[in-house]
Task: structure prediction
Amino acid sequence: MAKVALLVGISDYQPGLSPLPESVRDVEAMQSVLDRDAVGGFDDIQVLENPDPLALQEAVETLFSGRKKNDLALLFFSGHGIKDDSGRLYFATRLTRKNDKGSLVKATAVPASFLHDVMSSSRCKRQVVILDCCFSGAFAEGMQAKDDGSVDLQTELGGEGRAVLTSSSSTQYSFEQAGEALSVY
Result:
């Protein structure tokens, strides 16, 4: 059983999106926790700071692909979350920008649906996603429940599945606290 993590912090943005210097420090703090054998004991931790959309997508795909059923894959994202005009969540990258009308230029961000697809295709059945971004609760809106009407206690309580922790609801902003080294979350 491997324990692998991808920690993404995006602090630098194009004009129109405020910088988030705490994001990179959040990643460093998370890494220090996951590195400790007594606490996290992760085998492999990849840190990605200020990636472009393609680099972020490749890293996410690498995290979840080629895994075994009992592996644990953890994704931590600290940065801007943006919803498009249809209410779909995107993860902003250092290249993310808005057009003249204030709408997201989608090619410059990573859609949450991409993450859903990669996670659903993974053989890894122990997945943890921690999102520290605005509108992060919208991530769950894109998840599909698999329900055949029966209750399997081993499946429900046996430690398999996906855990998603978000710093906000689908309609809330996530905030930084002035003068603090890390985000509030």
Notes: The CA atoms of residues 5 and 45 lie 5 Å apart. The chain is about 25% helix and 25% strand. The first strand starts at residue 3 and ends at 9. Strands lie at 3-9, 44-49, 72-78, 81-83, 89-92, 109-111, 126-132, 161-166.
